[in-house]
Specification:
heterodimer, A: 342 residues, six-stranded mixed β-sheet, 26% strand, B: mainly alpha, 26 helices, 0% strand
Chain lengths: 342, 552
Amino acid sequence: MTTSNRPLAAAAGAPVLVIENLTKQYGSFTALNDLNLTLNAGQILGLIGPNGAGKTTTIKILVGLIRPTSGKASIAGVDCVSDASKIKRMVGYMPDTFGSYDNMRVREYLDFFGAAFGIAPRIRAKRIEEVMEMTGTAYMKDRFVESLSHGMQQRVGLARTMLHDPKVLILDEPVNGLDPQARIEMRDLLIQLADRGKTLLVTSHILPELARICDRIAIMTHGKLRAYGTVEEIGRQVSQQRTIESTLVSAEQVPAAANLIRQAIEPGADVVEVPAEATVRFRTAKSEAELCQVLTRLIQGQIQVTQFREVQTDLEEAFMSFARPQEAIAAKPVVTGGTTHA
Amino acid sequence: MLNAMAQREMTTMLRRRRMMALQCGLVIFFAILVAVRWPTDARVALTGTRSQQVFQLFGYGLLATVLLLLPVFPATSIVREKKQGTLELLLNTTMGSWRIFFGKLLAVMALAGIILAMSLPAASACYAMGGLSLYGDLWRMYQLLLLVALLFSVLGLLVSSYSNSIDSAVRVTYGLVLCLSILSLGPHYFFQGTKGTLADLGEILRGVSPFAAMMSLTGAGDVGSQGIISKSNLLGRFTVSSLIISAIAGLWTISRLNHKIFDASRPAGTISDDQALGVRFFRRLFFLVDPQRRSGGISSLVNPVMVKEFRCRRFGRLHWLLRLVAICAVLSLGLTYATTAGTLDWGVETIGGIMVVMQVALVVLITPSLSAGLISSERESRGWQLLQTTPMSMARIVWGKLLSVILPLMLILCATLPGYVVMVYIEPGMTGQVWKVVICLGITAVFAMLLSAAVGSLFSRTAAATAAAYGVLLSICAVPLLFWLGRDAPFGHGTVEKALSINPIAAALSVIRMPGFRNYSLIPANWWFLGGTSVACLLVLLTQTYRISRPR
């Protein structure tokens, strides 16, 4: 399992972000259903979920753009709904869209948002230099914002978010559209910010990125929180159902092996045949001793096994294991006996 | 392939709900146009005068509909594809620029056909009244309207191929509509009956105006004819000029539809602060305020939204404002010269009339482009969401945005004032009138600004906001003038005065005692209307801004 690069961050300060029983309904549609989350100072929370999971709704409630139907959200003890003006000074929000203005240079763009946050001109000029240096945008200060590439705009967006030195940074898809090098730089920058005591809430579809930098992961589907904890904790939840991979000498034996495995494990469990790799993959909650019996059965059945091993669960797999059942419920599929052919 | 292109364009245009509402509205509008002048007497006038009156009003109404509604579709057509990235896909097919152009043109012309087809029942009613010739009147009117549709569709497509944003395409296209339809009549209006280059120029220019052709067709005579009867074949001249312009603009647009349309590098963001001293000196000399110098930080004394608005407007930078003010001042001085040199021939009132028309036209042309997109451009660029996350209050944001319109308008109006000073110097008795005119202009500017901002705030797309703002403002300025054009018949003095009392141009012209307007008393009714509407628009703007900025 890929783990966070920040092992000490788990021992960070007092709770900064507290979400209690947060619900948002649009008519009969529930966008957010009884969400509970806590995040300590200096930690990075990765919010994962498929499209329409309620991530952006959660973020918008936190920055005061949407009112919840019920429940409470607070940042450093300040209520996100009733004290929206205080929240604006405490939170730096970077939406998934850039918010470009025509004919404005990068420096002017940052200057405008600095002025909008009421930063005095002299301090503002210094602050702009700092955030540009931090985000690597200093070389593009005279470029027009609308002419920047997507990756450059993401960096300028992050610089804008940090201008008023907020305690909490809420970043919606910050690494989206970045090239590999820029992604690594962005990842390092987010870690640096957390090390300086900033609390970060980050959403991303690039799950390995989140696994590397986040102290806490929250997996959401259909407006509900499905899993919450460190990457390891979530991995353990998923690991109750382990993925086992058995590689054979010959691809011809794959169907026979799959049949034997199906008889040995829980009825209806996922068994995937991959003839191209001469492999059979299956998910099971069997213990080590029981798995040993499965292997014995294969050998007794004249199946020539070269490898029989557990596949490590990463964040992507964890996400899919939480997201898939929900999608299945939503799509109401026809059950075909638990066998899938790849 | 041509069919596929036209079909796609038509489907995109017609599947919107707004289009359905628009079509229903048009049918009702045409029906009202006819019903207003439909005879209520039990007796039938055999002279056909009544049906001619109905036909005139109907013709102007149809022309105004085509001019106000249609240009927005071609104007947004190419630039929208460019912005969405689908033009690249189209150019990458085997379709070719001719097919793309004619597909788009065919779709717009089909839409024009639908609009005109919806007017056929009303036209039949006019014809049924008698006194109208099927070929001589109705057919030729529809022929004229189709030519108008063709001319502005092709011009719209040309503008669209050059524009980089949808709202600028709409703005420029409606500017062209205004110039070709109304402003082209100006020189003839002022120089008719005289001889010389200016009179000849006026005669040529009015040949491109569809209004002049329509007036000639409906037998209304010349625009503001002061007892001078013209025998020019304006319909024929418009036919020739519109076809020539359409052909040139069409070929021009086709030549633009290839890879070159994307063949431009991103601006490097050159800054003159880093250049040599000599270069900087010459740039300073040329621009007065160098547009490529590094700008200073926003002072804490000014509204940051105002500064942002100036900076992100193409013509909002200081060097452009200085140029605009300089042009206005030069024009004003030119008119001052005309005032002193031509007083005996024209009279101070006529010169004052020219100034008023030019100033109001400037205000009407510039104001919607500045204020219609104040809110919608933020919503479109997602900047509104970012502004909401700053501690600035909604009132401060709106005030900053309005200030960014008020200041250039004030500068423009102030730059045109020297002419009035000279006028008062020549004719001291006109001091009161001039003051009233200046008040009229001020109120007109405020009215145009708030109306455009309020109308624009109802839309989330800048192009739609700009088009709607131009449509409403031009309707208020142009529709009452249609009543004025029919001041001898079919409308009486009272009806025309009531219609003109909502028109800012007519009010200013009546104050300056311009020939043709001096018999109408429009002040203070006009001030009350403009003032009341401005307050209502401000309330709409604030309510709409509050609505979109409060957490939902």
